[in-house]
Each structure stands twice: as C-alpha cells, then as structure tokens.
Amino acid sequence: MKSKWDELRSQNADVVHDIQQLSERQQVLTDYQVNLNRQQLAIAQKYQHNFDGLQQLLNDRKDLATVAYKVGDAASRVNEIVAKYADDFKTATKLKKKDFIFLFTATALQVVRQLAFSKVNNYRSSDRLDDQAAAKKEGHGGKYDRSTRGSGYYHATYEEMEHNPVPFDTQNASFNFGENLGGGWGHRFHTLGHDPILGWIFGTANIATRTVTMSDIVSSYHVRYGQYMTGNQTLSVRPGDYFAARADTYKVLKYGLVEPAKHLDNCILAEALSVEARHLHSDINSKASLSLPGLEAMSPEFAEKLSRYGLNMHNLTMVGAQAGASVAINTLVAMIHRLMYDAATDGDERLYEVRTRKIISYSNMIASASNVVYVAVASAFGNANAINSLDIGGLLVTIVTVLRNGKVQEDIFEEFMANRWYQEIMDL
C-alpha cells in the first residue's frame, strides 16, 4: 500500500508535467504570434509600396500632362520662340567696341603681310633666276674643279662632291642607253635626285656614288667626265659629264647611304646631304623649279607639264609661306582676344567664342577681297607685275577659315537654341 508521501509525490509530478505542457503550448502560441506579426508587417509594407508607386504614377502622369501642355503651347508659338531666341543669339554675339579694335588690327596685319610678300612673290618663271644665277646665289656659282672627278665605281671623295656638279644634272650620252631626258630642263623630271622628297634618298646616294637614278627607280647609270659620243656618233668637242655605264640601284643605295652611315667620321654622307640640300634649294628657286613631290616617279611627262603651268615646288613653297603667315596672324589675334574675356561683361564663354571667330573670318574676308580687287584692277590697267601681289595662300586660308568658323558658329547656335527651348518647356 502506497503511503501518503508517495501519493503526494505522484500528484506533484503530474502537476509539473501539466505545467511543462502548458509552457510548451505557450511558446507555440508566442511563435505563432511573432510569425503572424511579421506577415502582417510584410503585407502592410507591400500595400504601402504599391500605394506609393500608385501615387508616384499619378504624379508622373500629372507632370507629363503639364509638360505635354507646355510642348503643345510652345509648338503653337514655335516661329515666335525661334525668332525671339535667334535675336537673343544675334545680340549676344554681336561685335562690341573692343571687338572692332581687334577686327581692324587683324585686317591691318593681314594687309601688311600681303604687301610684304608681294615684294618677294614671283609666280612666273620669267621673274625667277636662271640656273647659273640661282647656283651662284646658293654659293657655288658654277666654279668647279673637274680634275677631282673620279673614275671608279660607287665611291666619290669629299673633294669630288664639293668641286663638281651633281651627277644627275647631266644628260650627255643618255640616248646610248635608250634614255630620253627631254633636253634642257627635262632631266629634272626624269631623275630622282631632283624630286623634293625622294631626292634626299636617291640624290644623296647618287652624289656619294657618282651615279644617276632614273624616275623608274630601277635604272641607274655611272657618270664619267671626259669626251663622249654625241647623237651623231661623233666625239664631243668639249669634255663633260656623261652616262658611261649601267649601274645597280641596290648598290647605289648600299654604297651611297648604308656604308657611309657606318663611317660618319669620313663626312661622305654629311657632304652628300649638304650638296643635295644646296642643289634642291637652288633648283627650286630657278626658272624651271622642280616638280611636286612624287610626281616624276609616277609620270615624268605629267610632272613637267604641271610644272610649266605653275604647279611646281617654287610656287607651292611660296603659297605655303603665305598661308603659314596668315594662320599665324589668325592664331595670335584669336589668342589675345580670348585672353581679354571677362565673364562679368562678356557673358557666356561659348558665345564669346563666336565673337572671336567672327573677328578672324571678317578680317580675312576683308583682306582677301581687297587683295583680289587690287590685282584685278591693276592687271586691267596693264600692270604685268600685279599678279605677284596675289595672295593665293591667304585666300586659301580665308576660304577654309570662313567655312570652319561658320560650322562652329552653327553648332554653338544649335546648342544655344536647345538650351533655351528646354528652359521654355521646363521653366528652369
């Protein structure tokens, strides 16, 4: 029989068990409540987000409707708006007092440049020096010591190069090898030593090797000094340089450039370059001048024809000098004008740039127009030398400058109109 104490212990265990079960059920209820709260919070946030999105959508539609209304209103007044802003642009880029000072100064500088070049311009071959006078001006004057002309192959001494004409200046006996150099100045258009660019390679090598390389590059010939067979198959009365034998162009370049470059101490390469430079400069400024670079390698006949029409190196360098001086003046004026920019009084810097470009374009147009008018009037009254006052280089610069500046001004105007149009719609 259970004692009283055992019954009490059994009842107490049942109570503890019931309490544990109750506690477990309470924990389940608590976890359920926490999970329920989380779900409720998520649902509330979702609906709040949807509500905010709906509100934003309504606001956006309202703004879109407003913008659409403004666009429609502006579209109905587009001509009025464009005219208004075009006038604003014209006013903002209109030349001011200080701009006119720059305009007059730039024009005066261009006119002075034209006058200076008119003293040295000589477009016509009849106004330039003949070969002997040009050579004399260059410092040689045709005084040679022909006894120094060597007779070997592919090697010329320093003294020979200094005291003899360049080997590619001769055309004597060239017909014996089937070459027709055209006579007179024709050799300048058939030999690579006379090319303003290729001459620095082939001409230098020819001088150092006493050879001539033809415009086809493949054909080269040794040059000797003495009496030679003329076209009548008779011995020449006077000795001179002449085509003596065929040469190898590869060896011409090897012994005229590569080998001398390995032995710079003997000054062969330096002297050959010096002689070539003097000769090119002398020929460029003579009556026949030289052809444009590379032309004789393509077609000697075409190169000669263009040269006789005035498209030669002398006129090219002269026009290039005119253009270079004109560009230098434009650059100087533009730089100084930009340095005078004051944001407080000149406004937007991009609009100020338009004023700078207007100054350059107007000054160039005024100077070029006055130059063309002067040359035309002077020529009409019989002034044959008026053509030498024609500023071809400056005229080319004017055309390019006006076209380029016009394009930039159009871009700035479009940018200006786009900004103003945006402000008109958005009320910024």
Secondary-structure topology with pairs:
Blueprint: H1 4-76, H2 78-92, H3 97-118, H4 131-138, H5 158-162, H6 199-209, E1 211-213, E2 219-226, E3 240-248, H7 249-262, H8 268-284, H9 295-298, H10 300-308, H11 313-339, H12 343-346, H13 349-380, H14 392-426
Antiparallel strand pairs: 1-2, 2-3
Helix pairs in contact: 2-14, 3-11, 3-13, 4-8, 6-7, 6-8, 11-13, 11-14, 13-14
Task: Describe this structure as you would to a colleague.
This protein has 428 residues and is mainly alpha-helical. It folds into three domains: 73 residues; 149 residues, no CATH class; 185 residues, no CATH class. It is built from 14 helices and three strands. The protein has a three-stranded antiparallel beta sheet. Helix 3 packs antiparallel against helix 11.
Percent of residues in helical segments? 55-70%
Residue runs with pLDDT of under 50 for 5 or more positions = none
Mean pLDDT, all residues: 83
The N- and C-terminal alpha carbons lie at a distance of: 101 Å
Order of helices and strands: HHHHHHEEEHHHHHHHH
- Overall outline: elongated
Q: Give the strand line-up of the largest sheet.
A: 1-2-3
Strand content: under 5%
- The tally of structural domains comes to 3
Subunit organisation of the chains? single chain
Strand tally: 3
Alpha plus pi helix count = 14
Structural class: mainly alpha
Strand count, sense and barrel status of the largest sheet are: 3 strands, antiparallel
State Rg: 45 Å
